[in-house]
Protein backbone atom coordinates (compact mmCIF):
# COMPACT_ATOMS: atom_id res chain seq x y z
CA UNK A 1 0.00 0.00 0.00
CA UNK A 2 2.77 2.44 0.90
CA UNK A 3 4.13 2.19 -2.67
CA UNK A 4 0.84 3.46 -4.13
CA UNK A 5 0.43 7.07 -5.21
CA UNK A 6 -3.27 7.06 -4.32
CA UNK A 7 -6.16 4.77 -3.55
CA UNK A 8 -9.10 5.21 -5.89
CA UNK A 9 -12.32 3.59 -4.76
CA UNK A 10 -15.30 3.63 -7.14
CA UNK A 11 -17.78 1.66 -5.04
CA UNK A 12 -21.50 2.32 -5.03
CA UNK A 13 -22.00 0.78 -1.57
CA UNK A 14 -19.58 0.51 1.35
CA UNK A 15 -19.67 0.31 5.12
CA UNK A 16 -16.25 0.96 6.62
CA UNK A 17 -13.76 -0.21 3.96
CA UNK A 18 -10.57 -1.58 5.48
CA UNK A 19 -8.61 -0.70 2.34
CA UNK A 20 -9.33 3.00 3.00
CA UNK A 21 -8.04 2.62 6.56
CA UNK A 22 -4.91 0.89 5.26
CA UNK A 23 -4.28 3.67 2.76
CA UNK A 24 -4.62 6.44 5.34
CA UNK A 25 -2.41 4.59 7.81
CA UNK A 26 0.22 4.33 5.05
CA UNK A 27 0.00 8.02 4.12
CA UNK A 28 -1.69 7.27 0.80
CA UNK A 29 -4.36 9.79 -0.26
CA UNK A 30 -7.82 8.40 -0.96
CA UNK A 31 -10.17 9.40 -3.77
CA UNK A 32 -13.59 7.92 -3.13
CA UNK A 33 -17.33 8.53 -3.21
CA UNK A 34 -18.95 10.02 -0.13
CA UNK A 35 -20.86 6.85 0.84
CA UNK A 36 -21.19 4.67 3.92
CA UNK A 37 -18.39 5.17 6.43
CA UNK A 38 -15.95 6.67 3.93
CA UNK A 39 -16.68 10.30 4.95
CA UNK A 40 -15.91 9.26 8.54
CA UNK A 41 -12.39 8.36 7.39
CA UNK A 42 -11.63 10.66 4.47
CA UNK A 43 -11.59 14.38 5.17
CA UNK A 44 -12.10 16.07 1.82
CA UNK A 45 -9.06 18.17 0.95
CA UNK A 46 -7.11 16.97 3.97
CA UNK A 47 -6.28 13.27 3.53
CA UNK A 48 -8.20 12.62 0.35
CA UNK A 49 -10.91 13.77 -2.01
CA UNK A 50 -14.58 12.85 -1.70
CA UNK A 51 -16.83 12.85 -4.73
CA UNK A 52 -20.52 12.49 -5.41
CA UNK A 53 -21.34 8.80 -5.82
CA UNK A 54 -22.24 7.52 -9.26
CA UNK A 55 -20.27 10.13 -11.20
CA UNK A 56 -17.33 8.63 -13.12
CA UNK A 57 -16.52 12.07 -14.53
CA UNK A 58 -16.19 13.62 -11.06
CA UNK A 59 -14.15 10.64 -9.87
CA UNK A 60 -11.74 11.07 -12.80
CA UNK A 61 -11.47 14.82 -12.17
CA UNK A 62 -10.76 14.15 -8.49
CA UNK A 63 -8.00 11.68 -9.36
CA UNK A 64 -6.34 14.24 -11.62
CA UNK A 65 -6.62 16.89 -8.92
CA UNK A 66 -5.21 14.57 -6.23
CA UNK A 67 -2.22 13.74 -8.42
CA UNK A 68 -1.10 17.36 -8.85
CA UNK A 69 2.25 17.43 -7.02
CA UNK A 70 1.33 20.16 -4.53
CA UNK A 71 -2.10 18.65 -3.82
CA UNK A 72 -0.70 15.12 -3.56
CA UNK A 73 1.96 16.25 -1.05
CA UNK A 74 -0.65 17.96 1.11
CA UNK A 75 -3.05 15.01 1.01
CA UNK A 76 -0.26 12.55 1.86
CA UNK A 77 0.83 14.68 4.80
CA UNK A 78 -2.78 14.92 5.95
CA UNK A 79 -3.16 11.15 5.83
CA UNK A 80 -0.05 10.63 7.95
CA UNK A 81 -0.87 13.44 10.39
CA UNK A 82 -3.90 11.79 11.97
CA UNK A 83 -4.09 8.03 11.88
CA UNK A 84 -6.34 7.91 14.96
CA UNK A 85 -9.40 7.58 12.71
CA UNK A 86 -8.10 4.28 11.37
CA UNK A 87 -7.31 2.44 14.58
CA UNK A 88 -9.19 -0.66 15.65
CA UNK A 89 -10.87 0.93 18.68
CA UNK A 90 -12.29 3.83 16.66
CA UNK A 91 -13.55 1.45 13.99
CA UNK A 92 -15.20 -0.79 16.59
CA UNK A 93 -16.95 2.25 18.10
CA UNK A 94 -18.20 3.24 14.62
CA UNK A 95 -19.71 -0.21 14.09
CA UNK A 96 -21.22 -0.18 17.60
CA UNK A 97 -22.92 3.14 16.79
CA UNK A 98 -24.24 1.83 13.45
CA UNK A 99 -25.63 -1.35 15.03
CA UNK A 100 -27.18 0.59 17.92
CA UNK A 101 -28.92 2.94 15.48
CA UNK A 102 -30.22 0.00 13.44
CA UNK A 103 -31.48 -1.78 16.55
CA UNK A 104 -33.17 1.39 17.78
CA UNK A 105 -34.89 1.87 14.42
CA UNK A 106 -36.12 -1.72 14.48
CA UNK A 107 -37.51 -1.29 18.00
CA UNK A 108 -39.33 1.89 16.96
CA UNK A 109 -40.87 0.21 13.89
CA UNK A 110 -42.07 -2.74 16.00
CA UNK A 111 -43.53 -0.39 18.60
CA UNK A 112 -45.30 1.67 15.93
CA UNK A 113 -46.73 -1.47 14.33
CA UNK A 114 -48.05 -2.80 17.66
Task: Walk me through the structure.
The protein is mainly alpha-helical and 114 residues long. It has helices at 18-25, 38-41, 56-66, 69-81, 88-113; strands at residues 7-8, 30-33, 48-51. Strands 1-2-3 form a three-stranded parallel β-sheet, sandwiched between helices. α2 (38-41) links the parallel β2 and β3 (48-51). It is elongated and about 60 Å long. The protein starts with 6 loop residues before the first strand and ends with a helix. The mean pLDDT is 91.
In short:
This protein is mainly alpha-helical and 114 residues long. The protein is built from five helices and three strands. It has a three-stranded parallel β-sheet with strand order 1-2-3, sandwiched between helices.
Descriptive terms for the model:
54% helix; 3 strands; elongated; 114 residues; three-stranded parallel sheet
Report the biggest beta sheet as strand number plus sense, adding barrel if it closes: 3 strands, parallel
The overall pLDDT, averaged over residues, is 91
Quaternary structure type: single chain
- The counted number of beta strands is 3
Assign the structural class, choosing from mainly alpha, mainly beta, alpha/beta, alpha+beta, or little secondary structure: mainly alpha
Describe the global form: elongated
Topology:
Layout: E1 7-8, H1 18-25, E2 30-33, H2 38-41, E3 48-51, H3 56-66, H4 69-81, H5 88-113
Amino acid sequence: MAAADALVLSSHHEAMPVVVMEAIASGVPVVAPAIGGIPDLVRDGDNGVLVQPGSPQRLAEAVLRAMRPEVHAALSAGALADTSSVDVATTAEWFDDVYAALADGARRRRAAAA
